[in-house]
Amino acid sequence: QCEFEDDRTGLSKETIKRALADNLFYIQGKVPATATPNDYYMALAYTVRDRMLQRWFKTTEVYTKKGVKVVSYLSAEFLLGPHLSNNLINLGIYDLVRQVVEESGLDFVQLREIEEEPGLGNGGLGRLAACYMDSLSTLEIPAIGYGIRYEFGIFDQEIRDGWQVEITDKWLHLGNPWEIPRLEETIEVKFGGRTEAYYDEKCRYRVRWIPDKVVKGVPYDTPISGYNVNTVNTLRLWKAEAPESFEFQAFNVGDYYGAVNRKVVSENITKVLYPNDELMKGKELRLEQQYFFVSCSLQDMIRLHLQKGESLETFHQSFAVQLNDTHPSIGVAELMRLLVDEYEIEWDQAWQITQNTFGYTNHTLLPEALEKWTLSLFKNLLPRHLQIIYEINQRFLGQVRAKYPNDSDRLARLSLIDESGEKYVRMANLASVGSHAINGVAALHTELLKRDVLGDFHELWPEKFSNKTNGVTPRRWIVVSNPLLANLITRKIGVDWISHLEDLKQLEAFIEDAEFRREWRQTKQDIKGYLATYIKENHGIEVNPESLFDVQVKRLHEYKRQHLNVLHIITLYKRIKDNPNIEITPRTFIFGGKAAPGYFMAKLIIKLINSVGDVVNNDPDVRDRLKVVFLPDYNVRFGQRVYPAADLSEQISTAGKEASGTGNMKFAMNGALTIGTLDGANIEIREEVGEENFFLFGLTTEQVYELKSKGYNPWDYYHNNPQLKQVIDLISSGFFSHGDTNLFRPLVDSLLYHDPYMLFADYQSYIDAQDQVNQAYRDQEHWTRMSILNAARMGKFSSDRAILEYCQEIWNAVPVKIELEE
Ligand code: 26Y
Asked: Over the stretch 605-639, which tens digit does the pLDDT of each residue have?
């Protein structure tokens, strides 16, 4: 008897080796003599994907056959990061495949680094969606992620002469082995035109929409594996294409170029990710993107629901649809349109279904980030939806009027239409009215949401509100990114922590074990060494791996206060200049992050970091005790490199401004200590790790409000704090800009005369906390204890915990085991 392992599923070394060679030949169409490293990467990726397909089919089959409830996560952004290592870890074959690749004479690390990461998001919100997809699969929750297949994701960042330069991201240029187009499941989406009222055969008043454009949505599916389970969920991203038939008329009358042009315009919808976050600009194409992917997704869900032989009355029992911020909130009007206009369901019942279907997660309190669209834009693009929104609004305000008679101010605030000046549709109000559940992303943020931004809604429906503190996946953010630490932890407490992060608590039992502390410290040291080598090789900057690695990586924003960090650097520099022999804890300041291309002040902060770096790094007096590096093109891949190497995590936003933060969690899980304000999830992190293991500084949210309302004057702080004054004056004098006193003037003036994010108010407290950091770092034994305790107490911040809460309290979704032999 002779047994062969299947080439596409087998897990013996020989089989994987053969599969790799087969995929190179039969899928990539190459032989070793002509194969490029990318060809080998592709062959490897297909080899891994093959091993997911059976599970993927099985998962999909079970969901369609059994009447299970599916979570549908609607997000304009999914910031996935590289797939290869993550899938290898989830399938439990990382070491095996690495060995096979190396035995085949290939360089595994080189192949791994060839993968272009799908940068289909800006930052926190997009990355959260990716972590949640990972946890949904790991927890065996039936789920589908819906989004947009941007041809160009977030731009690549280069730094030239200290300034950010944006380069288009061509992530698809060499092909994407992780996606499968499902051409046969294409969906049509309408745009523009007008509406027409009519009476149907039963003499009922109805409305039909006569669009002036139809666009096809083609789904591209990516498998999302779970850790150590058979579940492989789907991420379905839509690409816009022009329908062939639609333009024939133009063709016939000879307007060939016009027809081609309209085709190109349709396909523009999914061309590019808007690189702004936290700044709403009323761009028509963005609303087109939102409507496009939401309509495709809802039509897709309805098709799946009807395929099961169910009627639409039970739609909300088949799907729990979560709105990742307001970006997909047009879905509320679209589901109503589909139910009422296309499936002829009575308004009241359709509204019940809609409210029961949607949940809304808010990610920001910043007024400039709240989405609103002018009525004229809305009417041109989505005339029927505007009517539906008016109808929803009329009924809703009727309810409000009944509950609060004669309260026109309240009515104006709650209305879906902002009528205070130019008229707008308020998307947060639409999302709130159309959902049965509304949540913030950290305890403080939810409280502020209930009090301020959605205060009137909270008064009306307190029961709709809850908090769901963010979490991150320990698979990508510890196991994939920090194998050395993961191995050390596993040797001490076994592997269960990877899917039960609370188990990290068991590490506390080893806190008195000097050998364990030594290993912990050595691990961090080794990883810092790797990062130092990487920085040297890729950016030519020498950094001392023994120095304290102080890291701030995140999008550039004034509210995140990267420039406060710079003020600290200049303060230390000044101390050295005043007294070159001063005792100082050597530090390496590492920055990374992209600025929105149109955000002048954020770009100027990048220039400031680089300019200060140039001076500090090259001043012989500093004697390498301080180094400042801005690492270009911060992305998921680089995050994986830098979180594990950090000693200190900078989480220094103005209190009340950062909804949650998730980088703060990734750092602490990897044993970094946090210096931070009482903002977002910092508060909860500090609660978990203990106040003695956290460097706290700055005003509280209440104090920020108080100071603002009694009149904040940054000028007073500048004049009353000589240290601060020296630092600001040094920038103004042109010291960091080759004598140019104009370069940083906009930044300095903004601080001196407005300081909207209160850097000056928090400056001294920040410097004091940083001095405590220096002291603490000198006692390495103590620092190591704090580092271990930080990691050990991060169980709460697993995205598994967060997803479980969403499942139990919002989605009413339960796990479904996927058995391969059934
Ligand atoms: C309206 C449009 C311009 C827009 C696009 C992207 C607005 C906002 C965004 C992105 C927001 C975002 O990333 N928010 C972050 O969400 C994280 C996940 O909840 C939070 O941890 C983080 O504090 C918040 O800033």
From this structure: 999 999 999 999 999 999 999 999 999 999 999 99
The question of whether 662 is a catalytic residue gets the answer: yes
Q: How far is the CA of 384 from the centre of ligand 1 (A)?
A: 29
For residue 598, give the amino acid letter. Answer: G
Question: What is the Cα–Cα distance from 245 to 188, expressed in whole angstroms?
Answer: 12
SS3 call for 152 = strand
Q: Provide the 10 A C-beta neighbour count for residue 776.
A: 18
| Residue 822 pLDDT exceeds 90 | no
Helix (H, G, I), strand (E, B) or coil at 700: coil
588: annotated active-site residue = no
CA-nearest of 694, 640, 668, 660 to 504 is: 668
Which pLDDT value is given to residue 255? 82
Locus of tokens 């910043």: 366
Which tens digits make up the pLDDT trace of 739-780? 999 999 999 999 999 999 999 999 999 999 999 999 999 999
pLDDT at residue 259 tops 90: no
Return the DSSP state at 272.
Answer: B
- Of all protein residues, the one whose alpha carbon is nearest to atom 9 of ligand 1 is 277
Is the CB–ligand 1 distance for residue 128 below 6 Å? yes
Of all protein residues, whose CA lies closest to atom 1 belonging to ligand 1? 280
Give the predicted TM-score (pTM) of the model: 0.98
Homologous superfamily of the 67-82+117-384 domain (CATH)? Glycogen Phosphorylase B; (3.40.50.2000)
pLDDT of residue 257: 83
- Say yes or no: CB of residue 680 within 6 Å of ligand 1: yes
CA distance 101 to 700: 53
What are the distances in angstroms from CA 714 to CA 336, 729, 765?
Answer: 50, 14, 15
In the set 469, 662, 674, 677, the catalytic residue is: 662
Residues 61, 505: Cα–Cα separation, whole Å? 38
Q: How does 488-510 read in b/e, with b if 16+ C-beta sit within 10 Å?
A: bbeebbeeebbbebebbeebeeb
523 is catalytic: no
Q: Is the CB of residue 127 below 6 angstroms from any atom belonging to ligand 1?
A: no
Tell me: the pLDDT tens digits for 110-124? 999 999 999 999 999
Residue 327 corresponds to which tokens in the numbers above?
């970006």
Give the model's pLDDT for residue 251: 58
pLDDT of residue 186: 98
Six-digit token string for 362: 């808010």
Q: Are 166 and 156 in contact (CB under 8 A)?
A: yes
Query: DSSP state, 807?
Result: I
Assess whether pLDDT exceeds 80 at residue 469: yes
The answer to whether the beta carbons of residues 217 and 397 sit under 8 Å apart is no
**Domain spanning 513-797: CATH 3.40.50.2000:** yes
The CA 656 to ligand 1 mean position distance, Å, reads 14
The yes-or-no answer on residue 666 being catalytic is yes
CATH 3.40.50.2000 domain residues, the chain: 67-82+117-384, 513-797
125 lines ligand 1 (CB under 6 A): yes
∠ CA 283-288-293 to the nearest 5 degrees?
135
Could you tell me the distance, in angstroms and rounded to a whole number, from the CA of residue 365 to the centre of ligand 1? 10
Collapsing DSSP to helix, strand or coil, 310 comes out as coil
Nearest Cα residue to 613 out of 591, 583, 639, 646: 591
**The two structure tokens encoding residue 181:** 């187009």
Residue ranges of the alpha helices (H) in 84-123? Answer: 84-91, 94-103, 108-114
Q: Which residue CA neighbors atom 10 of ligand 1 most closely? A: 277
Task: Determine the Cα–Cα distance for residues 234 and 181; give it in Å rounded to an integer.
Answer: 12
d(CA 582, CA 574): 11
Q: Write the residue with the smallest CA distance to atom 18 of ligand 1.
A: 125
ipTM above 0.90, yes or no: yes
Return the number of other C-beta atoms located less than 10 Å from residue 514's C-beta: 10
Q: Tell me if 20 sits within 8 A of 96, measured CB to CB.
A: no
Ligand 1 nearest-atom number relative to CA 276: 3
Helix (H, G, I), strand (E, B) or coil at 675: strand
Spatial separation of the C-alpha atoms in residues 111 and 107, rounded to whole Å: 6
